[in-house]
Amino acid sequence: MARVCDKLIDVFMVDKPTPTDWRKLLAFSKEWNNLRPHFYKRSQERADSEDDPGKKHNLLRFARKFKEIDEDIQRHNELLGVIKKEPSELSEVVAKRRKDFTKEFFVHLFTVAQSYHDNPSEQNALAKLGNDCVAAVQAYDSATENMEALNAAEIKLQDIINSPSLDAACKKIDDLAEKNKLDSALVLMITKAWSAAKESNMTKDEVKDVLYHLYKTSVANLQRNVPKEIRILKYLLTIEDREERLCALNDAFTQGEELEGKDVDSLYTTPEKLYSWIKVMVDAYHLSQEGTLMREARDLMNPKIIKKMEELKKVVKDHFM
Asked: Listed GO cellular component terms (predicted)?
């Protein structure tokens, strides 16, 4: 066993000396769990018997760094064992242990899948599990981001409503717009509040009046500063071919140099932001039926376009989120 461990130590220190090499070799090894205690014992023995201070230091340093990588991989394997045992509970596992689903974990998972080159069914099962994990993490992150945006919007709305006067409330909206913080989540909340008040017989007229003015102030600010997502959306809705629209969506989500002009735009955004704005437009239409959310988007607010937006929203969610 000492001879086997010596050979491994030489491989890890000389032939494959980087942490990336170690991670891959350990992921591919089917015998490492049995070798582990003997390996570290032999590493310590060699360091203890070494007379050269420099070589002793190198051996001790190697063993310490290697053990850190090894423990990291053990954590990855433990998590992999959990999700393999209960694949149907993947969303719950991600919610509880999101911080463990690191880039290194996914690299390890797909490396382990590669190690089953002689067992295609196991390799495919692990690859599928990896893809499911990626999808679950993306869904969790998107939901968390949306929840944080809604919480932030609710705080802003409460602050606006608690203003000492209507003028003060409208000024707060103006200030948010000036600072680029009048986001789609807040606009949607204001729109919903106004729509609910307008349709209710229980809401006092003065409250309706306040909410109406807040709504109109939000609209006016959006008219002055049209979000690029609306410009992207208007362009996407001109494309009838599904494959061409999918390519255009991919371009819109690919970061690059932005150009804004009268005739040509080259803009990009994220799937989450575009999805959020589509949702604002669709929800605002269904809530108010007014088509006055913003002047530049007025031509979007008709039943046919809304149907296309709902289809586009589904495409964005299914393919990019």
From this structure: chloroplast envelope; chloroplast thylakoid membrane
